[in-house]
Amino acid sequence: MDAKDKQFLEMIVRSIVSNPDAVSVDRTIDEMGVLLTLKIDPADMGYVIGRKGQTAQAIRTLLKIVGAKNNSRVNLKIYDPNAGSKRPMPRREDREDIDTSSVDDLKI
Q1: pLDDT at 94
Q2: Domain locations in the chain?
């Protein structure tokens, strides 16, 4: 069993997070290929995901290259312990409690 993909992911993530000791990767293999589940300190989530998910996408692209080199399909799952606990922001048209009286008389 070749775990170079796991070692590669750990090396990349540990080098960009504030708490590298909290980084752990679980590697499972099924009919879809290799699944790497990344667990990090929740405070480091922004470093790994990046603006608009660009860092996470770049890591996934690199893992696909490593996987192709080893004739396997590698997928990355970033474990979020807070998933599902966040309340969605109400849509603008659903919010009636906004006081706009201070800007109603502005002349721009």
Answers
A1: 59
A2: 4-79
pTM for the model stands at 0.72
How many C-beta neighbours within 10 Å does residue 57 have?
A: 13
Secondary-structure class of domain 4-79 per CATH = alpha beta
DSSP secondary-structure letter at 78? E
Which tokens in the block code for residue 14? 């540990």
pLDDT of residue 1: 46
CB count in 10 Å sphere of residue 31: 4
- Compute the distance between CA of residue 44 and CA of residue 14 in angstroms, rounded to an integer: 10
**What residues have CB less than 8 Å from 32, skipping those under 6 apart?**
73, 75
